[in-house]
Design goal:
Layout (H helix, E strand, L loop, with lengths): L1 H13 L13 E6 L10 E5 L2 E4 L4 E6 L3 E2 L8 E6 L3 E2 L5 E3 L3 E11 L9 E10 L5 E8 L5 E2 L3 H28 L6 H22 L6 E2 L4 E6 L3 E4 L4
Antiparallel strand pairs: 1-2, 2-3, 3-15, 4-6, 4-14, 5-13, 6-9, 7-8, 9-10, 10-11, 10-12, 11-14
Helix pairs in contact: 2-3
Length: about 240
């Protein structure tokens, strides 16, 4: 009995203090607005006596906390993000404190395909972790076309350009080499023939080869769009 009482006392000392649960009826106090991000479908925030509710369709930014390479990642893996700056409404209500975390899960990876189709990474954001340790269920996805993460058009264009220039140089060299065989004076003719052939092959090669893998660096930001309302509980006074 004495041993049981000691355990009970120790448990009560170590148990964290729980916030008082309100039994009062929830009422809307105000309708406020987030600062609009491009692509947002809503900027409405419901302020109640119990919660701050960021409505479905709102968009905010998060940052990768580690590198992500699509060729090494797998479906089912967890990807962590941070909220670098506190998020307020236009009216001044704090919604998400700075240094909060967002936890996502990779639900699908589509590898690069021929005809220069870049890899696609699909992530579902499932949890918001506040600095005080509170964990809030969320349902969100990247605010991109079809909810996919992939390399942008500039990276793809760079790959095609590199292939075109590379084979263009080879074609120029080949043309010069052939021009020397019958007559050294025909270098210009060899270049005129070799360069177009090389660049054309390079362009075709760049277009029909597999696309790029998706690479995100630690600290790189992406936009997240809420698929459902995100309700952040208030502590009762």
């Amino acid at each position: 009995m004495k041993k049981f009482l000691c355990i009970l006392i120790l448990f009560s000392m170590c148990m964290p203090v729980l916030a008082e649960v309100c039994n009062c009826e929830e009422k809307t106090i105000a309708v406020e607005h987030m600062f609009c991000e491009k692509g947002a479908l809503s900027n409405k925030v419901l302020i109640t006596n119990l919660r701050n509710i960021i409505c479905k369709g709102n968009v905010f930014r998060v940052e990768f906390t580690c590198n992500l390479h699509s060729e090494k990642a797998k479906a089912g893996e967890t990807v962590n993000f941070s909220v670098p700056e506190a998020i307020y409404t236009q009216e001044g209500t704090l919604l998400i404190p700075a240094c909060s975390k967002v936890v996502g899960k990779i639900i699908k990876i589509q590898k690069p395909r021929i005809f220069n189709k870049n890899a696609r990474v699909y992530i579902k954001f499932e949890c918001l972790l506040l600095p005080d340790g509170s964990a809030i269920v969320m349902n969100a996805r990247p605010n991109t076309e079809n909810g996919e993460l992939k390399e942008g058009p500039w990276m793809t264009a760079g790959k095609i350009t590199a292939s075109t220039l590379g084979l263009g140089i080879i074609g120029a060299g080949t043309g010069v080499g052939f021009s020397f065989i019958p007559n050294p004076a025909k270098i210009g003719t060899g270049l005129a023939i070799g360069i177009p052939i090389g660049t054309s092959l390079g362009l075709i090669t760049g277009l029909i080869t597999p696309g790029l893998n998706y690479h995100a660096k630690c600290g790189e930001s992406i936009k997240v769009i809420l698929c459902d309302n995100l309700a952040i509980q208030k502590f009762c006074e």
